[in-house]
């Protein structure tokens, strides 16, 4: 397991580039299965999640060529075949993406075997919405010790789906199944994140008929055949915001090429309220601390889009340890997303987590024994420590904390960061960080 040695206490400054969103690219790759024609996806980052889904598609007979230098993926799903339980099992725990293969494989083969899922340990990560939705389309779903087996001997029928919570994954599941189901599908309570809208754009290019109405209602008219697509993935707004928070936390100045204001409006408002400043040009956003250099505490609640994204909160919490006063963060999307604060406390941060909902939003985790609210008191000087990465976004935050801390830190388990941040080490070096992989 790689250990990153960080000599902190220096501002990050310079320019980096973000490419396609980790939370869209693998879904578009899965969507290619819905057609026998070749598809092309551009602005694809060289990250582990792309590798994992490539292997899973290869297993089912899809040829995938990735030209990493230009970031273009070519997918050839002409010959799709079933994979054995043993073969699929090797992908158990790899990511959350396999669950999205259900609809496309049922349309192509009439059956599917899906391994147990992976993904960051930030909550239970149940798939009950997914299973319920697939059964509504007419799929037979059998849970097995190592995953699930599905059949649709009579094909799939359009249906009405009402999600109890605007789940991104369950919305993608419904879209990827509805586009070739017979008849109309109406999805209520849908997630409407920019990554979802980009997946809708991909499916529309393939020939799907999808309308996104007001109040989170999506309607799909199923079609017999779909074509290949040619698409440029939207930029990764989570990575862009992660580097923006790194600029705040270290008192630096980072230009993120590829960042798109439209996808980051809520983040930019919070960034400015905390005391950050930014300049927006055609194809980049320059993030830095405001002229007076001080950071201000805030009250923040994460939420589904267009709210403040749950994946934005971890790196921002590191910056809040340097803000004057008490900040309150109420995490309403995942029940267990403050695990990373333990390491920050060991570095000198004053962070207390609570089971109560510290915010006005209706939250599913109130009084259920989940530590999903945090109070951060600042500013507190951070000092280097030996810390271990808990998950992807928490891992990025650990490195930011080490960069903001005075002295040397050793961050172990940094490999996980490559799942979602392309060329992570190269970017740190480009931003003048004093780091060494050991
Ligand atoms: C996607 O996860 C992203 N991952 C997450 O990013 C992101 O945080 C999340 O959406 C919310 O925006 C990918 O796209 C690969 P959900 P997903 O279904 O689809 C509950 C990152 O670091 N739920 O919207 O798994 C669930 O427990 C990752 O990039 C059910 O109860 O998220 C959670 O509380 C982290 N039953 C809430 O919904 C279900 O069947 C949101 O989950 C499904 C979800």
From TrEMBL:
Keywords: Cell cycle, Cell division, Cell shape, Cell wall biogenesis/degradation, Cytoplasm, Peptidoglycan synthesis, Pyruvate, Transferase. Residues 7-428 form the Enolpyruvate transferase domain. It catalyses: phosphoenolpyruvate + UDP-N-acetyl-alpha-D-glucosamine = UDP-N-acetyl-3-O-(1-carboxyvinyl)-alpha-D-glucosamine + phosphate. Its main location: cytoplasm. Phosphoenolpyruvate binds at residues 22-23. Pathway: Cell wall biogenesis; peptidoglycan biosynthesis. It comes from the Bacteria. GO terms for biological process: cell division; cell wall organization; peptidoglycan biosynthetic process; regulation of cell shape; UDP-N-acetylgalactosamine biosynthetic process. It is found in: Cytoplasm. GO terms for cellular component: cytoplasm. The modification 2-(S-cysteinyl)pyruvic acid O-phosphothioketal is found at residue 120. The active site is at 120 (proton donor). It holds the Pfam family EPSP_synthase. UDP-N-acetyl-alpha-D-glucosamine binds at residues 96, 311, 333. GO terms for molecular function: UDP-N-acetylglucosamine 1-carboxyvinyltransferase activity. Its EC number is 2.5.1.7. NCBIfam families: murA (TIGR01072), PRK09369.1 (NF006873). Cell wall formation. Adds enolpyruvyl to UDP-N-acetylglucosamine. Belongs to the EPSP synthase family. MurA subfamily. This is UDP-N-acetylglucosamine 1-carboxyvinyltransferase. It comes from Mobiluncus porci. The gene is murA.
């Amino acid at each position: 397991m790689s250990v990153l040695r960080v000599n902190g206490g220096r501002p990050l400054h310079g320019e980096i580039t973000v490419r396609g969103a980790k939370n869209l690219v693998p879904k578009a790759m899965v969507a290619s299965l819905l057609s026998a024609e070749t598809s092309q996806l551009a602005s694809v980052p060289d990250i582990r999640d792309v590798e994992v889904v490539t292997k899973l598609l290869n297993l089912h007979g899809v040829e995938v060529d990735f030209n990493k230098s230009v970031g273009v993926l070519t997918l050839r799903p002409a010959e799709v075949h079933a994979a054995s339980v043993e073969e699929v099992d090797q992908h158990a725990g790899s990511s959350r993406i396999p669950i999205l293969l259900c609809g496309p494989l049922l349309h192509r083969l009439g059956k599917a075997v899906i391994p147990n899922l992976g993904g960051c340990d930030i909550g239970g990560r149940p798939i009950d919405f997914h299973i319920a939705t697939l059964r509504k389309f007419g799929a037979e779903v059998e849970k097995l010790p190592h995953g699930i087996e599905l059949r649709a001997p009579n094909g799939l029928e359009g249906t009405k789906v009402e999600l109890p919570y605007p789940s991104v994954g369950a919305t993608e599941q419904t879209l990827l199944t509805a586009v070739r189901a017979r008849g109309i599908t109406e999805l209520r309570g849908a997630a409407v994140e920019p990554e979802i809208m980009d997946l809708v754009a991909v499916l529309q290019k393939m020939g799907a008929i999808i309308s996104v109405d007001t109040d989170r209602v999506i309607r799909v008219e199923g079609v017999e055949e779909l074509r290949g697509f040619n698409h440029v993935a939207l930029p990764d707004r989570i990575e862009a915001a992660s580097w923006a928070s790194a600029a705040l936390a270290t008192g630096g100045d980072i230009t993120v090429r590829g960042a798109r204001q439209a996808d980051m409006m809520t983040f930019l408002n919070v960034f400015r309220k905390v005391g950050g400043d930014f300049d927006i040009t055609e194809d980049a956003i320059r993030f830095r601390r405001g002229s007076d250099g001080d950071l201000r505490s805030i009250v923040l609640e994460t939420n589904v889009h267009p709210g403040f994204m749950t994946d934005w909160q971890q790196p921002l919490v590191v910056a809040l340890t340097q803000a004057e006063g008490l900040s309150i963060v109420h995490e309403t999307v995942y029940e267990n997303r403050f695990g990373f604060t333990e390491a920050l406390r060991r570095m000198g941060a004053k962070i207390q987590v609570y089971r109560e909902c510290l915010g006005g939003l209706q939250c599913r985790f109130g009084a259920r024994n989940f530590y999903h609210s945090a109070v951060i008191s600042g500013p507190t000087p951070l000092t280097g420590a030996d810390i271990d990465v808990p998950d992807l976004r928490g891992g990025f935050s650990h490195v930011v904390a080490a960069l903001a801390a005075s002295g040397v830190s050793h961050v172990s388990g940094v490999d996980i960061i490559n799942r979602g941040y392309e060329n992570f080490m190269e970017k740190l070096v480009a931003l003048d960080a004093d780091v060494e992989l050991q």
